[in-house]
Amino acid sequence: MRLTLKILLYAVLIIVAIATITPMLWMISASCMPSGQASNYPPQFLPSPFTLEHYARLFSRLNVMKYFFNSLVLSVSVTVLSLLINSMAGYAFAKYRFRGRDKLFGFLITSMVVPAQVTMLPLFLMLNRMGLVNTYWGVIIPGMAGIFGIFMIRQYALSIPDSLLEAARIDGAGDFRIYWSLVVPLCKPILVTLAIFTFMGTWNDFLWPLIVMTDDSMYTLPVALANLMGEHAQDTELMMAGSVITILPVMIVFAAMQKYYIKGIMMGSVKG
Amino acid sequence: MNTASGKYAAALFLFPALAMLAVFFFIPVIASFILSFTDFDIYSLGNIHFARFIGFENYAKLFNDPLFWKALGNTFYFVVVGGPLSLVVSLLAALAINSRLVRFKGFFRLVYFAPVVTTLVAVSVVWRFIYHPRFGILNYALGAFGISPVDWLGNPHWAMPAVILLAVWKNFGYNMIIFIAGLQNIPDYLYEAARIDGASPFDQFRKITLPMLAPTTLFVGIITMIGYFQLFAEPYVMTQGGPLDSTLSIVLLMYQQGFRWWNMGYAAAIAFVLFAIIFLATVLQYAVQRKHSDQ
Q1: Bridge partners of B53?
Q2: Using one digit for the tens of pLDDT, what is the confidence trace for A257-268?
Q3: Residue A148, number of CB atoms within 10 A of its CB
Q4: Cβ–Cβ of B127/A95 closer than 8 Å?
Q5: How is domain A62-270 classified at the architecture level of CATH?
Q6: Is B216 in Cβ contact with A13 (below 8 Å)?
Q7: Complete domains list, chain B, with CATH
Q8: CA distances from A85 to A13, A255, B25 (A)
Q9: Percentages helix, strand, coil for chain A, rounded to the nearest 5?
Q10: Which residue of A31, B13, B24, B116 pairs with B173 in a disulfide if CB–CB is 3.0 to 4.6 A?
Q11: Backbone phi, psi, residue B53, to 5°
């Protein structure tokens, strides 16, 4: 009975694992096939001969280096700036007492139910008026402060003992000094988690960059990929190579930081 | 910290975040609401004085627009079928991985989680080829079981199920992680006591696991639902809303109206209907959950 159950469990787990991983393995394999091979029937699962010509074409003729650079600049900028701004606010909400603090914080939390799409039309008009459409700032500015980030840092900063901050104050450290040399290092675990979330979120984001980056030279990788799909829909192997290039960087970040990422999801779920 | 300089410092620490949120989040929300009562279109884009207040006309037009009802119906189809499906798959995966009988937990967890971190646009591109009626590997795999080829994205009846399958594949690993955390928080002595009383594994699941998981399920249910209501990239990349508008979602309709045809007043009304629906659905889910836990 126990053995049967065990075999059954493993069978299901392995079948689901195969179903989960096959699309990605096929993507990688097809990206290295010569043109046309991915459209054979029955499907071939390994490239023969192996080729990197589609990657070469993406980089040499289809400007992928530029899109890669755009995605990287945006993801890194949003991550760094939002960590700075959100950590200051999260710390203030956790450790300073001022009138209306809890009401203000509650208001911010409640407003998380507003979907981002509601803001996009006026935001586009505003940024257009400011001349920021088709610039990096068009993506960076709306991502600079985030309620979720403030919330996560506040929850974490609450656990810093007041006595520690008082001691630093008695030693003559100013408010900013305490924040920068005491609070930020103590909050490192949550900051690393948020950094991964923000980097991957910005890298993978689609709707807003699609709206605000209308010029080809400003596309991010996902926007460029969707656009490429319109022109090269028949070119399966090329599209797979483009998908690999888009997915690979986030996969590497995830693989390197897996522990922090998973912990972050669990933290976010503890107090919903 | 309660000193005078402390208050000053708190204001300085808060200022950047609150200013950014006010200007680039709260003002746009209000502006969007106002926009939804105007006929702001491509001419107003050049000169804002061309926009006029037209009262509830956008909303009236919306409720008489068959395309809007189609998009609304499609989005509910996606949320009502895809959401619970994703929850059930992720709960089953969490139960299996968390089982005492299973080893290599880390490996299975990693594999199931991998699609979560991928880029939605990229995997939509990949799945478009997987769904290919002639060369796609899905039809090939189904053929092994004697199932004849399906034109997944070309048939109005199959396009939305295909989008749902992709979405569940992409996100069940996320919910699974949260469920595993929830399962590990259930104390062992509850199960031990139940075993001593002779409860079957199924009874234990029904009487201990499910009730103890209720808060987790509520959280997972709400975030999944909110995310699923915002369906956009999958149809944008795979079907452009077709065939026969069978995968047109609310956000895709808003995008087309607002940023392709520049009917921004009309698009703002669509965005606010989406907001109202998400808000009501969240409140409803809380209420249902509370009623259950009271019993």
Answers
A1: B38
A2: 888 888 888 776
A3: 16
A4: no
A5: Orthogonal Bundle (1.10)
A6: no
A7: 64-294 (1.10.3720.10)
A8: 43, 27, 15
A9: 80, 0, 20
A10: B116
A11: -75, 130
Contacts of B79 in chain A (CB under 8 A): none
**Amino acid at residue number B219:** F
Partnered with residue A91 across adjacent β-strands are: none
Give domain limits for chain A.
62-270
A24 vs B166: CA distance, rounded Å: 12
CA distance A4 to B102: 13
SS3 B39: coil
Q: How far apart are CA A192 and CA B85, in angstroms?
A: 32
The residue-averaged pLDDT of B261-289 equals 93
Q: What proportion of chain A, given as a percentage, has pLDDT over 90?
A: 77
Q: Which of B117, B122, B124 is nearest to A67 (CA)?
A: B122
SS3 B53: strand
Q: For residues B99 and A9, what is the distance between their CA atoms, to the nearest angstrom?
A: 9
CA distance B254 to B271: 7
Q: Do B121 and A225 touch (CB under 8 A)?
A: yes
Among the ranges given (A41-45, A225-229, B89-93, B117-121), the one the predictor scored with the smallest mean pLDDT? A41-45
Label each residue of A53-92 as H, E or C: HHHHHHHHCCCHHHHHHHHHHHHHHHHHHHHHHHHHHHHH
Which position has the token pair 């509850």? B190
- Residue B295 Cα, gap to closest chain A Cα (Å): 23
Roughly how many angstroms between the first and final C-alpha of chain A, as a whole number?
40
Interatomic CA distance for residues B10 and A195, integer angstroms: 23
User: In whole angstroms, how large is the CA radius of gyration of chain B?
Assistant: 24
Q: Which value, in Å, is the radius of gyration of the alpha carbons in chain A? A: 23
**Which one-letter amino acid corresponds to residue B55?**
G
* ipTM exceeding the 0.85 mark: yes
Contact assignment for B102 to A10 by CB distance below 8 Å = yes
In this structure, what token pair is assigned to residue A57? 């074409």
A114 vs B contacts (CB less than 8 Å): 29, 275
- Write phi, then psi, for B38 (nearest 5 degrees): -120, 170
Q: Which two tokens stand for residue B38?
A: 């105007």
The token duo for B77 is 């189809």
| CA–CA dist B223, B243 (Å, integer) | 29
